[in-house]
Specification:
- By secondary structure, the chain is α/β, with parallel strands linked by helices.
- It starts with a helix and ends in a 9-residue tail after the last strand.
- The longest helix has 16 residues.
- β4 and β5 form a beta hairpin.
- α7 packs parallel to α8.
- It has eight helices and eight strands, in the order αβαβαβαββαβααβαβ.
- It has an eight-stranded mixed beta sheet with strand order 4-5-3-2-6-7-1-8, with helices on both faces.
Length: 183
């Protein structure tokens, strides 16, 4: 992969990663291999905690320092509010609930907030509330020692959100995947 996320975080607190849809899972896994060495709050709006846990374990990623905030599972099945390693939110469109969780993990000194993904918010909300929400989250991160990575699909359909989001983050990185196994 072309992205060295650790290097990017040396000079930046917040990153917006524009990822091609075909390589999305590869990019997420590759970055988590590096970030999971420290305390990570992983906010998921597109995969359940169980699904992510399975993907990360299959890829030999130690998630013992990762706390998940799952905004999907309660919309499709009956889950408790909290289990070991995961907080379940009511729905992905609950921006206030997500914001409160982010504040909680920033206050507890987490090294990274991973937000997967901004483009999923557009399924549930209009662009203006998503942009305001993103601005609020990034300001919370800026006032802390936490760093934030925000994933977004790199597509024409999300151009307006990407343009708006790029005003708030320190750096926008267009991720290009190179599969080293293919030689």
């Amino acid at each position: 992969m072309v992205l060295d996320i650790e290097k990017e975080f040396k000079d930046n607190k917040t990153l917006l990663l524009l990822v091609p849809s075909v390589e999305y899972n590869h990019v997420v896994v590759d970055n988590m291999k590096k970030l999971a060495k420290e305390d990570v709050c992983y906010i998921t709006l597109n995969k359940t905690f169980d699904s992510l846990k399975e993907i990360f374990e299959k890829n030999k990623i130690d998630i013992s320092k990762v706390v998940f905030v799952d905004a999907i599972s309660k919309t499709i099945k009956n889950v408790p509010t909290q289990t070991k390693g995961c907080y379940y939110l009511s729905a992905p469109n609950s921006l206030t609930e997500i914001s409160l969780q982010v504040s909680h993990f920033i206050k507890h000194g987490f090294d990274y907030i991973v937000f997967d993904s901004l483009t999923n918010l557009l399924i549930y909300q209009k662009k203006a509330p998503v942009a305001k929400f993103l601005s609020t989250i990034i300001n919370k991160i800026a006032d802390s020692n936490t760093k934030g990575v925000f994933y977004s699909l790199d597509s024409k359909a999300h151009e307006e959100l990407i343009e708006e989001a790029s005003m708030f983050v320190d750096k926008v990185v267009k991720v290009e995947w190179v599969d080293t196994k293919l030689g």
